[in-house]
Specification:
The chain has 11 helices and 15 strands. The chain is of the alpha/beta class. It folds into 2 domains: 201 residues, Periplasmic binding protein-like II (D-Maltodextrin-Binding Protein, domain 2), CATH 3.40.190; 96 residues, D-Maltodextrin-Binding Protein, domain 2 (3-Layer(aba) Sandwich). The chain has a 5-stranded mixed sheet.
Length: 303
């Protein structure tokens, strides 16, 4: 389930390099600071519309859970090189959608918290070695991870999406509509496997990386590209796309191909903390805070 409301802002400074991807996020933050509050911006009918995902079942509400009392701050660990989810802000402090969501969780639970950035590949080991209490980063939820740690329900997932040029009037993707149409995919990817299984009559065109596939779409060498929705959204909202293209059709979230998403990860013995984090995430969605933060960091929604 999702909801669609007008966006806060649009940024056009993103390119496919990590440094310029960071510039895209910084621009999003700056524009957000300059506009009025989220509810007012959401009522502007002329703004581009952004679909906000809902990962919570409105019929299932967790019991009210109090955060465990602790004499010290709860230590969150993140990475600062994966915008727009987590990256270093202009002052060097961690920010991004995940980081600001964590700050909102701490406020919701009246917890004293610290957020420390570490190298991505060291985060889980640091958690296991008690150098932090919670990992808040884009680490996929997998059976292997769950065998070592606890995790909240996903607060973000990796949708697969189709993108197409806006000037060709192509139909929304379906098994019938894609028959004989060329679709750019990254060779050997989960998206390539999904396309082969569910759109067997599409003409798959293999590319070595997403940037090359996006370039082919911009030139009109392929009809569609099927890939990770987050990266496609960043490209569409940036200068490299030359305003050529848009996401078309719906999102695809099958766990078997695209994973469960990401959640807040704790040690297995910290059950009370994990349950409190889960409940806080649900409340932030109910209260509209999740949507507010989503609009700040995703001016082009991957959903």
């Amino acid at each position: 389930m999702s909801q669609t409301i007008p966006a806060h802002n649009q940024c056009a400074t993103h390119t496919t390099t990590p440094s310029s991807r960071l510039a895209w996020c910084a621009a999003a933050l700056l524009v957000t600071m300059l506009v009025s509050g989220w509810p007012a911006a959401a009522q502007d009918a002329t703004s581009p519309r952004v679909t906000i995902p809902n990962f919570w079942n409105p019929r299932s509400r967790l019991e009210r859970i109090e955060a465990p009392q602790t004499a010290r701050a709860v230590r969150f660990l993140t990475d600062d090189e994966f915008p727009p989810l987590h990256f270093a802000g202009p002052d060097g402090a961690p920010t991004g959608f995940v980081v600001e969501l964590v700050r909102a969780v701490c406020e919701r639970l009246s917890l004293s918290c610290t957020i420390q950035a570490r190298r991505f590949d060291t985060l889980l080991d640091a958690l296991a070695e008690r150098q932090g209490d919670v990992v808040a980063a884009a680490i996929p939820l997998t059976p292997t991870l769950r065998s070592r740690f606890l995790a909240t329900r996903p607060y973000f997932r990796w949708p697969a999406r189709f993108a197409a040029r806006t000037d060709k009037g192509l139909p929304a993707p379906s098994a019938k509509a894609l028959a004989g149409r060329s679709v750019g995919i990254v060779a050997g990817s989960a998206h390539a496997a999904y396309l082969k299984t569910f759109f067997p009559q599409a003409e798959a065109r293999d590319f070595t990386d997403l940037a090359t596939a996006e370039g082919a779409l911009r030139r009109g060498d392929v009809d569609y590209v099927f890939a990770d929705g987050l990266n496609l959204a960043l490209w569409i909202g940036g200068i490299d796309s030359s305003n050529c293209c848009a996401l078309v059709g719906g999102d695809y979230l099958e766990n078997r191909y695209f994973g469960e998403g990401i959640g807040l990860v704790t040690r297995r013995e910290d059950t009370a903390l994990s349950r409190a984090l889960d409940e806080a995430l649900q409340r932030l969605w109910d209260e509209g805070k999740y949507a507010e933060l989503y609009l700040r960091f995703f001016p082009v929604s991957p959903f």
